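Meet today's protein:

…
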Amino acid sequence: MSRSERSALLLAGLLAGAGVCHFVAPRPFDATVPRALPGSPRAWTYASGVAELALAAGVALPRTRRVSAQAAAAFFVGVFPANVQMAVDWRHRSAPLRTAAFARLPLQVPLVLWARGVAKGQESRS
């Protein structure tokens, strides 16, 4: 298995794991949904879980990998406001929770770059 294939499958696994968590333990995700969004937070939690599972499937398959990895990069950018909301809401919580919430913010950058790298790796194979 090539390095780019391994990277793509790891990204697919991360997306799948996160997607499953949205259904198994939705409450923490509900709390990160920006209040400005219409509808219930649970609906947004489930919708983002479905999106992550679909992206995982797409990234796992070589035929759909490039476009799915590009979509994953866009998804990581799109959910950034939820991470900001979490950091704002958790700023008065215990130090470990506050640290986790703030640590998530810069982690979006490597996720976006990783997804873009997977997409570019697939382009070079086409």
About this structure: The radius of gyration is 15 Å. Residues 3-121 form one domain. The mean pLDDT is 91.
